[in-house]
Write a structure and sequence with these properties.
The protein is mainly alpha-helical. It is built from 24 helices and five strands.
Length: 600
Amino acid sequence: MSTRGAGYGLDAELAAKSALKYDTGKEGEAARWLAEVTEVGFTESFADSLKNGQMLCILINRIKPGTIKKVETSKMPFKQMENISNFLKACRVLGVAEHDLFETVDLFEQKDLGVVVNCIHALGRTVQTTVPEFRGPHLGVKMSGKSASSFRSAAPAPSKAPAYNGMTKLAMGSSATMQRSTFNDTRNVAFGANTVGTGATNIVSQQSMGSSSTMQRSDITTSNSVTFGADSASGKSALPPAVPAKKKWAPAPAPRSSVPPPAPSSSYSSSSSYAPSARGGGYGLDAELAKKMALKYDPKLEAEAQQWVEQVIGSSFPTSFAESLKNGQILCTLINTIKPGTIRSVSTSKMPFKQMENVSNYLKACRTLGVAEHDLFETVDLYEQKDMGVVVTCIHALGRAVQGTYAGPKLGAKVADKNVRKFTPDQLKGDGGMTKLAAGSSKTMERSAFNDTNSVTFGNKVAGTGTSGATMQTAGSSATMQKAQFNDTNSINFGANASGTSVAKASDVTMLGKGSAGTMERSSVSKPGITFGADASTSERDKMARVNFDFAASEPGELSLKEGTIVIVLDDKSDPDGWWTGKDSAGHTGQFPGNYVTVI
């Protein structure tokens, strides 16, 4: 199945979903049924054989002769699309549901063959009920017919019976159904109290009795259990423990609210009245596609496009944007105003295929004037208002494309002209010397150039072997940054100096210990109030604890806690009342309830 535009974005996503839903097995069943009923073989693929609509019209006339009076045999696109349109009208007459139908472009341009196959299957099921004279062959399972329910006429109202003083059906419940014992409280003065469960102190009311004696289950008593709510929950209690006493009780934290915050309201609003229609029943993939198109639609771009078209043709739109462009006459007039004679004939007929022919001629003219293929739309996008966003985009693309040839009103920015650069063979060849990649930063940082073209030891120097002196690799940036040089060739303790061990004098500093002393003298690092390395780490004797509940300090020396944060426990044993001393991440130190945290 083809995709509109360049085959990316929303169009590619739609094509991928349609391809995943396509069932080749159902296609084969539909093709066999068509061939058996019409007695016409498939000379091409399934889609190409049905594209002109002739086989579909023959199918309808075989099921119910005379339904389609004329089957077009012309090769003109609009005539073939007229055959498909007549087939869809006949399907509606024969009882096929609206959500089982497809659009003309789905078959003619092979946009969604899945819905075409589903429509043929729906037709095969439906005609088994709506056209009983059609003897087959049949496709699918016969649809169930409507079953009309008949009711007896209303019987005369019986005379009013005397009031019943016993138990009503509502109060009786499932009595005599689940074999529960009956009871009669008609003359019981406490019946009202029994029913509502109040007013009697020595008997069990009906409401409190529940299903007693029906389903004998053991009673659960949790009236004295303070953890009953926590027992039914799956985790810890929602309330924090009591704060330990310290001169006075600290205020207990308020329980966390279980009510979620209100959902933010959507800020999207559109002033445009355009709403793309969804094929089928307006649900599933079609509804999702329509919603995405509505979100992409820009009323400001529509207003700019309408204003430009009105300025070019010299007249205003008679109705809304979509309805005014639907018949294609304004679009053809726009093209002929920009480049006279491009569209030779503009049809003024009200026939749908003639109006769609105008739109098709406009799209062909857009291609001629330089509009890119991915900026064009399909006829059905405008005629059935399936996607007015691509129609507006096409008009803007036309306005940009014609600015180089049309001197009238402008729309959008001009498309950039080609700037072809030509180079001579010498420029393409270059100087033939060292490439820029090999030169690196030569002559950029004023480093001395080198040339070892004729050096027989060049390879050895690069590798750092084979020479008695310092190689290019070992020299590093010597003579470039003027670092102090050293020579320990004749030093018998050179190895010891390099390794930093076995020196002859305690006062000597080895090369390893010396580091870059005397080469790049940097000032010492001052760190007032800053901790580095081990200074920043926590002492091994300190404990870390996670805060489980919020705690607000109410006295001097107390430390406020925030649920979910980490504190350092400095002392958790000296206070017998359960108050610990700690420090938070901001460096504040104070006391807090030990049962509000968990050591980690």
